[in-house]
Amino acid sequence: MEILIRESPETCAALAAQIVARTVTSLARPVLGLATGGTPQLLYRELVALHERGELSFRSTTTFNLDEYVGLGPSDANSYHRYMQTHLFDHVDLDREQTFLPPGSAPDLRQACREYEELIAEAGGIDLQILGIGANGHIGFNEPTCSLGSRTWVKILSEQTIRDNARYFGDESEVPRHVVTMGIATILEARHCLLLATGPKKADAVQRMIEGPVSAMCPASALQMHPRVTVVLDEEAAFLLTFKEHYRWVERHKLDWQQLE
Ligand code: GLP
Fold it and tell me: pLDDT tens digits, residue range 204-238?
C-alpha cells in the first residue's frame, strides 16, 4: 500500500483529484469506480473545478458506483443516485448512459446484482476505484465479518453504520436496513484502488486497515492483498498509525517515475 499523508481534507482532495485526472486523461476509455459519503465530496468539487477550467473531460469515461440503498429510487434525496447527480454528474460532461449505480430499486435484486457484475466486466473492469472507509472498517457497504470473496449483492447494514449514516436521514429509523454493494472481490479486481479517509473518527479503522491483520473484522484490510492501493489520509485520520514516519520516509524517497504511483 502507498500511504500519502497530507495536512487537511482539502489537500487530500486536491491530491486525489490529481490521481483521478491522471487516470482519466491517460486512457482512451477510462472506467472509474465511484464512492459516496461525506469524504469524497471535496474530491468531486475538485474534479468539477478542473472540468470547469477546461483541464479535464469525462467524455469517454464510464463510471460504476460502489453501493446504493435498497428501496431508494434515483429521485429520493438520500439515494446515492441523487448524491452523484448533485456532486458530480450534473456538473461534468459524463455521458449519462455510461454512469451506472447498483440496482437498489430493481424488481429482481438478485438478477440485477448479477447483471451489475456483468456490466463491469463488459466495460473491461474498473481502472481506478475510489473508496472511503466506514468507522467500523467497511468499504462499500461490506460490513465487518463479511465474506472477503463477496461479489455485488444485497447486504444488511450493521447497527453502527445505521447510526453513523443517520445524520443524512435525520433519524435512525429512516435509514434503510438493506443495501446493494459491490463485494470485496469486486473491489479487489479494480486495477488501482484510491482510498480517502479524513478526520479523527476514521483513525482507528485506518490503523486496522493498514497495520492490522487481514481480517473480515476490518473489511478494508483486504486491500492489503491488492497489488496497487493508494491511501490518502489527513493528519487526523493518520494519527494512530504506528509507522507514520516510515510512510513519510518512503514518500520522500520515491524515484521520479514512482511519483503519484
Ligand atoms: C458509507 C458508504 C461508504 C463510505 C462510508 C464512509 O456508508 N457506503 O462507501 O465510504 O460509509 O462515509 P463518510 O465518508 O460519510 O464517512
Answer: 999 999 999 999 999 999 999 999 999 999 999 99
- Any ligand 1 atom below 6 A from CB of 183: no
Q: d(Cα 229, Cα 208) in Å, to the nearest integer?
A: 15
**Using a 6 Å cutoff on CB, does residue 200 contact ligand 1?**
no
Whether pLDDT at 261 is above 60: no
Strand partners, 26: none
Judge whether 78 counts as a catalytic residue. no
Cell numbers representing residue 141 in the block: 457497504
User: Domains (ranges, CATH) in the chain?
Assistant: 2-253 (3.40.50.1360)
* Closest-CA residue to 78 (of 146, 172, 197): 172
The C-alpha atoms of residue 149 and residue 168 are separated, in whole angstroms, by 30
Catalytic residue among 136, 164, 189, 234: 136
- Expressed in angstroms and rounded, the spacing between residue 205 Cα and the centre of ligand 1 is 12
Return all residues near 119 (Cβ < 8 A) that are at least 6 apart: 64, 100
Write the pLDDT tens digit of every residue in 73-86. Answer: 999 999 999 999 99
What distance in angstroms lies between residue 181's CA and the mean position of ligand 1's atoms?
12
Amino acid at 231: V
